[in-house]
């Protein structure tokens, strides 16, 4: 049995199969407990092959190594909610639940700009938003690989992840599937460039400020650089390292699911810091790549508090909300 290198639980999907066995029930219960207690877990035996993940990292490195003019031909549109294509360094500034225009301006011009570039891919068959691709002649083969990777992550979501969570919450196995029929997810390639270690130490540059994710849940693939940290459930404000572990997929839930569950499930703060100075690095912090896959509900669905998450001792805290409106509000605050 794999030992977790941090205090995150590990959920093993090896015996999940079609979700009907006692073992599948236990997997669901473990996933539910992880979402309730910390909001993060390492997942193993997801069926997403490690070679496929490694290949996606290779493509990501090739993409970000392209000249800036080539990447800018696929630039992210100015509107935050049109979340596709390439964002150059400084384009996105993560903020945490700030929606006031003046306050957002102050954060963007602030002292700790996120030093990263990203490329966002949505569902290739989406009815509401088209992908913005790097031109095929500039990166032949990338589009097909990214679409396949997107689909393999989606396959895990619908065949195991969402059914397991539903089972763990004593809901019908297809409960969450009924709200996630459109596969309006987002695959994000992230590159944190190398920089002199001193600029991270002085705070002139940062990687990703502390934030929660917005949607239903996130699958996260990291390279071997490290730097991801998660807020400790037992002592909030203390961040604990969540190092990469080969052959695992890191999982966390987002604010939308937390709200849907009347705060029964936790969407936990996390951030990315540059790793501590190492003598062997000669004063330069090496680059880092990561690949989050954000799972979101269908934009036209309206959610009510989840069955089992409210009652006489636990009144409903939130109004019902439309998934699309919720996501647009959160995206417009960060771009
Ligand atoms: O780069 C990472 O490891 C995490 C990125 C992240 O938290 C995000 O994009 O929401
Ligand atoms: Fe995140």
UniProtKB/TrEMBL annotation:
Q: Which domain of life is it from?
A: Eukaryota
Q: Name one GO molecular function term.
A: metal ion binding
> Where's the Fe2OG dioxygenase domain?
183-297
Looking up PANTHER family in the UniProt record yields:
2-OXOGLUTARATE (2OG) AND FE(II)-DEPENDENT OXYGENASE SUPERFAMILY PROTEIN-RELATED
**Lineage, top ranks:** Eukaryota, Fungi, Dikarya, Basidiomycota, Agaricomycotina
| Family under the similarity heading | Belongs to the iron/ascorbate-dependent oxidoreductase family.
Which keywords describe this protein according to UniProt?
Iron, Metal-binding, Oxidoreductase
Q: Would I find ATP-binding among this entry's keywords? A: no
- Could you identify this protein by its name? Fe2OG dioxygenase domain-containing protein
What parts of the sequence cross the membrane?
A: none
Q: Does the record carry Acyltransferase as a key word?
A: no
Q: Which InterPro entries match?
A: DIOX_N, IPNS-like_FE2OG_OXY, IPNS-like_sf, Iron_ascorbate_oxido_reductase, Oxoglu/Fe-dep_dioxygenase_dom
């Amino acid at each position: 049995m794999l030992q977790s290198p941090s205090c995150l639980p590990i959920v093993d999907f090896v015996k999940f199969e079609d979700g009907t066995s006692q073992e599948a029930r236990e997997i669901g219960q473990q996933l539910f407990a992880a979402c309730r207690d910390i909001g993060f877990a390492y997942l193993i035996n997801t069926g997403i092959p490690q070679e496929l993940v490694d290949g996606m990292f290779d493509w990501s490195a090739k993409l970000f190594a392209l000249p800036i003019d080539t990447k800018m031909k696929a630039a992210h549109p100015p509107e935050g909610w049109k979340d596709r294509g390439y964002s150059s360094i400084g384009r996105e500034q993560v903020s945490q639940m700030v929606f006031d225009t003046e306050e957002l301006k102050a954060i963007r011009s602030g002292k700790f700009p996120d030093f990263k570039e990203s490329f966002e891919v949505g569902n290739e068959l989406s009815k509401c938003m088209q992908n913005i691709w790097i031109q095929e002649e500039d990166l032949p083969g990338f589009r097909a690989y990214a679409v396949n990777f997107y689909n393999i992550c989606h396959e895990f979501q619908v065949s195991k992840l969402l059914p397991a969570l539903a089972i763990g919450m004593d809901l019908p196995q297809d409960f969450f599937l009924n709200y996630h029929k459109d596969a309006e997810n987002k695959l994000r390639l992230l590159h944190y460039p190398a920089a002199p270690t001193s600029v991270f130490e002085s705070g002139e540059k940062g990687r990703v400020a502390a934030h929660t994710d917005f949607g239903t849940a996130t699958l996260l693939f990291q390279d071997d650089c490290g730097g991801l940290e998660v807020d400790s459930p037992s002592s909030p404000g203390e961040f604990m390292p969540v190092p990469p572990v080969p052959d695992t997929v890191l999982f966390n839930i987002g604010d939308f699911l937390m709200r849907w569950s009347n705060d029964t499930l936790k969407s936990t703060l996390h951030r990315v810091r540059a790793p501590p100075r190492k003598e062997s690095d000669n004063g330069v912090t090496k680059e880092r790549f990561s690949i989050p896959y954000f799972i979101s509900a269908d934009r036209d669905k309206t959610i009510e508090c989840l069955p089992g998450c409210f009652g006489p001792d636990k009144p409903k805290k939130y109004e019902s909300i439309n998934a699309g409106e919720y996501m647009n509000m959160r995206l417009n605050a960060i771009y």
